[in-house]
Amino acid sequence: xxxxxxxxxxxxxxxxxxxxxxxxxxxxxxxxxxxxxxxxxxxxxxxxxxxxxxxxxxxxxxxxxxxxxxxxxxxxxxxxxxxxxxxxxxxxxxxxxxxxxxxxxxxx
Amino acid sequence: xxxxxxxxxxxxxxxxxxxxxxxxxxxxxxxxxxxxxxxxxxxxxxxxxxxxxxxxxxxxxxxxxxxxxxxxxxxxxxxxxxxxxxxxxxxxxxxxxxxxxxxxxxxxxxxxxxxxx
Lengths: 108, 117
Hints:
The complex is a heterodimer. By secondary structure, chain A is mostly beta strands. The model of chain A has no long low-confidence stretch (mean pLDDT 96). Chain A is built from no helices and eleven strands. By secondary structure, chain B is mainly beta. Helix content of chain B is 0%, strand content 52%. Chain B has strands at 3-7, 11-12, 18-25, 33-39, 46-52, 57-59, 67-72, 77-82, 91-98, 104-107, 111-115. In chain B, strands 2, 4, 5, 6, 9, 10 and 11 form a seven-stranded mixed β-sheet that branches. Chain B starts with a strand and ends with a strand.
């Protein structure tokens, strides 16, 4: 299995801060990396697909980058509605797709 | 707008089989792949497996021996069966659609399944 490791597991930030979340794959996955936002009691929401493509309707303050094994999700200016848990997911191997353990973004 | 809705028992006894159905509305089940994903309380997401509209399947190797998925295109539904459940299978179960490239744009709201006697 391809393991996905996110860091940090949680972070505290203020409105307006620039936030960066990292996701590392246990082997190269090219750009087969997707990012989701999940709020309590809700299904995850797709933010970024194929490492850097912004899903339609997602604010442009969200961006993704990386290839191979190292990826980042950046929120350029954190807004109140962005406090949530973020997950990366690899879609390189159809033998099994795997998610990172999540990064919880909390209010400072 | 495509919508997915999970349905099935919220309580299953240990050693029995968990059965869930996902009904797709606002679009056809054809030409896409349909996945089940679960999330234990307070934990991360685990992909269970997927089925195409033609019935081909891919299962998570860690669950493969207990998982069966099926699709009913006439009803725009697909289903999950997970056998020999234990308390470790207690989770919110989501159904989701991917376009074949492995990212999930459409999700159901999720349904909590508790395994307990």
